[in-house]
Structure formats: C-alpha cells, structure tokens
Amino acid sequence: MGIAIKSAEDIEKMRIAGRLAAEVLDFIAPHVRPGVSTGELDRLCHEYMTGVQGTIPAPLGYCPPGYRPYPKSICTSVNNQVCHGIPGDKVLKRGDIVNIDITTIKDGYHGDTSRMFHVGEPSIAARRLSEITFECMWLGILEVRPGATLGDIGHAIQRHAEGHGYSVVREFCGHGIGKRFHEEPQVLHYGKPGSLAELKAGMIFTIEPMINAGRREIRELADGWTIVTKDHSLSAQWEHTVLVTESGYEVLTLSSGAPALPASLSSAARQSAAA
Ligand code: MF3
Ligand code: CO
Ligand code: CO
Predict the structure, then answer these.
(1) What share of the chain is helix, strand, coil (3-state, %, to 5)?
(2) Which helix H or strand E contains 78, and what residues bound it?
(3) 67 CA closest ligand 1 atom index
(4) Ligand 1 contact via 59 beta carbon (within 6 Å)
(5) Candidate of 103, 137, 177 to mutate for ligand 1, largest count of ligand atoms within 8 Å of Cβ
C-alpha cells in the first residue's frame, strides 16, 4: 500500500480536525482536579465534542482486529497506566499524573492528540518524567522534513529518553492518520538514524512516545484495553498529529492551550549544544 500523500483538500480538513482535538484538551484542562473521576472527564469531553463542536469521538466503539469495542469517548491513563486507560469510577487525587488522549472526527477526518496533566502538585519525579516525555515528542517532531526517515524520529526520541534513564515502550507507536484512525506507517519511538521509510511532503502521522520511569515492559489489564507498566513505574505520553511540509513540519493539533515547543529545544539552542 505505501504511505499516503494527502491532497490539499485532505490537508485542509485535517487542520480542522486536528485543531478541534486540541481544543477538547483546552476545554477539559480546568476540570482535571483532585476529586474528579475519569468517567466525569469522559462525560464532559463527550458532551463538548458532540454538543458544542459537532465532532465524533473516534474511540467510542472503536474495534481493531482482536479487540473488543472501546467503551468510552476518550482515554485517561493515570500514573502507571501507559495508554488506553478506560474512564470510569477512578477518582483523581493530588499528585496523580494523567494522560488524556482525544481523537475527533470532523467531516470524515481524524485529529489525534494527547497531553499530560498534573492533579494538584506533582512529585519532582513525576514532573520530570512528564517534561522529558514532552521533549521527546518535540525532538521527534523536529526531525520531520522531506528526506528524513522514520528511523531518525525514533532515534531522537529513544536517545533523549534513555539518556535520562527512562525506557521507551515498544508495543505501541505513532501512526498514519486521515480518513482512518490508524493508517500506515507505524511510527516507532525508537530506532536507528537513516533507517525505515523516507518522509515525503504530504504525509500525515502522529508522534506519541510512551516513556516509562522504570523498565519498558508492559501488561494489558483484564478490561482488554488498559496498558500498564509491568514494574508499576510511572509512565507518561504526549501526542501530536504532524504534516510533512516542503520545508519541514506543521503540527496540526495546536490550540491556544497547547504548550509550546520548549525554548531549550529551539534550533538555535540545539545548534549551540552540538557545537
Ligand atoms: N488515541 C490513541 C492513539 O493515539 C488510540 C486510542 S484507541 C481507543 O492512537 F480505542 F482506545 F481509543
Ligand atoms: Co494516535
Ligand atoms: Co491518541
């Protein structure tokens, strides 16, 4: 099949779907507080998407081969949960960290983005893990340009994570996205520079590293979806949907509340560090 090159019309619609997904995260941010349940966060996001935005929550009923239908509209992965946490009765408490992952469908196109949230004051260890994971995502994004490879993205992420003593989850990866939620290619968050497929302008995929404070091994819970770290260590994830442009990249899942590229990773800072 190969990796799709999106048309100008596809790209315009992906910009809209992407921005809407990011705006759901902006909307939910002030609700992420001690005492709220993950089920309540799901309910609020569902109402906002369907009632205010006119978007469809892509996770609801999503059923890849070998899975049972996903029962909720968002994913909420708390502390040692790596990804695909199912919202429910779990009440967030001070010091928890939670990844909220939103995928909207608008006009047939998908936007997919996630952020980490701290509930009250995080521990120093939790804040650090979340920050380094955010930098990992951005270091991957900064590799994106025509002629670079998927291996360049994975390598940049792995190097930063492991350089800080963390581990990269291998079983889940970023993915092409468009009219379908998950398309080719798989975007691994580890790898070798120059390996795997070459990027071309018009490709759209997510970069969504899952980084563990401890060992990389994971386990699936009996609900058939929730992934946790085997050693119970904390895990963090950030996700953007990214377009390969003629000159580099365009992040499609930005919004006013999306934290910006860290100044320490700007090209000037990276060049002086390399010198
Ligand atoms: N949003 C996730 C991703 O980034 C996929 C979630 S699938 C679900 O690829 F069914 F759990 F929602
Ligand atoms: Co994704
Ligand atoms: Co996602």
Answers:
(1) 30, 25, 45
(2) strand 75-78
(3) 10
(4) yes
(5) 103
Contact 1, 184 (CB under 8 A): yes
Q: Mutation test of ligand 1: which of 56, 62, 75 has the most ligand atoms closer than 8 Å to its C-beta?
A: 75
Average pLDDT in the chain: 97
Q: 8-274, what's its fold?
A: Creatine Amidinohydrolase (3.90.230)
Q: Phi/psi of residue 171, each to 5°?
A: -80, -15
Nearest to 28 by CA among 16, 19, 40: 40
Cβ of 103 less than 6 Å from ligand 1: yes
DSSP for 84-114, please give it: -PPPSSPBP-TT-EEEEEEEEEETTEEEEEE
Tell me: pLDDT of 77 over 80. Answer: yes
Model-level pTM greater than 0.90?
yes
Instruction: Give the whole-angstrom CA distance, residue 41 versus residue 185.
Output: 31
Tens of pLDDT, residue by residue over 204-263, are 999 999 999 999 999 999 999 999 999 999 999 999 999 999 999 999 999 999 999 988
- In short, whether 135's Cβ falls inside 6 Å of ligand 1 is no
Instruction: Quote the DSSP letter at residue 48.
Output: I
- 3-state class of 159 per DSSP? helix
85 lines ligand 1 (CB under 6 A): no
Atom from ligand 1 closest to the CA of residue 62: 10
